[in-house]
């Protein structure tokens, strides 16, 4: 897909209203280091360093819908337990207060705890409800769907096999949506996908489609044969889409035509949640009236970005567009706002990456600057550079400065391979920016005193480090200006 076409399609996703019905899972990621083996059994001991709680299942789908620009209303169930309370709070934070979470007694909130060391999952602990939801809960769910349909552009069924999407709930929800004129997309689970018949599109992965049809799904021709075989068992479903991991995606559309989209080769970091990302992009594209074949391409691009992130991370339009650009892209995409920097830094940390920060005016970029930036990049995994605006430079350096305006200075920094993002700030110190980014390490030149740096106390209080980079003697912007003026 061409970049200009992708940008047009991504813009069309903004504001589309998705109604999500599916299993909500309370996800916990426990991160730590493994340095020894237990004396009690031949198993590694994980020394916990941090843990993150987030929405999984239909909750992760909702998070991705929001991050891609959509508006989301979520209908699901939670237990009357601590995990249910925590999940409810996360849903309100991610989607607002319009979500409908039906509480069930004697039925726990589905939960999953992943233990991670060195960016690799060691093992996972699941807690699943022992039975599907009962008839009164089914009735409450369908009433909630009926009440919410008027404010939606598409209904999405996210089946994680935790007992919410019973055959009665599935058929009832699809019937209500189609009568209201809404498309329905489905991420299936389990056996006998004919229970989803009537949806606009059903999106199994290759393994699921192979199990459902008894046919292999490892090549374009095999995918086509399996899609045709599955479609022959469906009387009312319009389209099928199979996701094939690194093999891309294959679509059987309403006219019986099969199309394929080849994935971009990439290093896979973590496949957790990539299916949710694909379904989110596909569904918002459908809601926007984008043709199936373009919706498939967009979904594949989004899923490709998702697998390059750790855990159930969300994907934004900026992520997708930046991923498409490659090395020939203009560096301006690395120049971002404070709000964007805060979110990106959180994402990097979730991926187990150390976030570094340095700042300055960088008026006349010289080898001294480059030495500090190279050192800064060497002590972190991702480097954010705070750059003084023109107004703040004038307050600090006088009316004759800066020599180069802020746009030029930002572009020069963003063009350097050791700089991952550039953020302009208008204050005289970067303290507020530091508090927004919460860097793991703060780096400045060796002519400063670490404890006197604005923001140093905040960095240390949050478990970070403050380090000083070696300086190149005699190199400074002020000295260069004096030399050009014949004063030195």
List strands and helices in order, with pairings:
Blueprint: H1 3-13, E1 17-22, E2 24-37, E3 44-57, H2 58-67, E4 71-79, H3 82-95, E5 100-104, E6 111-117, E7 120-127, H4 135-148, E8 154-158, H5 167-179, E9 184-187, E10 201-202, H6 206-213, H7 220-231, E11 239-243, E12 249-252, E13 258-261, H8 274-287, H9 292-306, H10 317-325, E14 335-336, H11 338-350, E15 355-360, H12 367-378, E16 382-388, H13 390-397, H14 406-414, E17 421-425, H15 431-437, E18 441-445, H16 456-461, E19 465-469, H17 477-484
Q: Helix share of residues?
A: 25-40%
Largest sheet entry: 9 strands, mixed
* Beta content: 15-25%
- Number of beta strands: 19
Query: Which stretches are low in confidence, meaning pLDDT under 50 for 5 or more residues running?
Result: none
Terminal CA distance: 55 Å
Number of domains: 2
In short:
The protein is α/β, with parallel strands linked by helices and about 500 residues long.
Descriptive account of the structure:
This protein has 488 residues and is of the alpha/beta class. The chain has two domains: 3-326, UDP-N-acetylmuramoyl-L-alanine:D-glutamate ligase, CATH 3.40.1190.20; 330-484, 3-Layer(aba) Sandwich (Rossmann fold), CATH 3.40.50.620. The chain is 38% helix and 24% strand. The chain has 17 helices and 19 strands. The strands form three sheets. The protein has a nine-stranded mixed sheet with strand order 5-4-1-8-9-10-11-12-13, sandwiched between helices. It has a six-stranded parallel sheet with strand order 14-17-16-15-18-19, with helices on both faces. A hairpin with a 5-residue loop joins strand 11 and strand 12. Helix 1 packs across helix 8, helix 1 (3-13) packs antiparallel against helix 10 and helix 8 (274-287) runs antiparallel to helix 9 (292-306). The chain is globular, with a radius of gyration of 26 Å. It starts with a helix and ends with a helix.
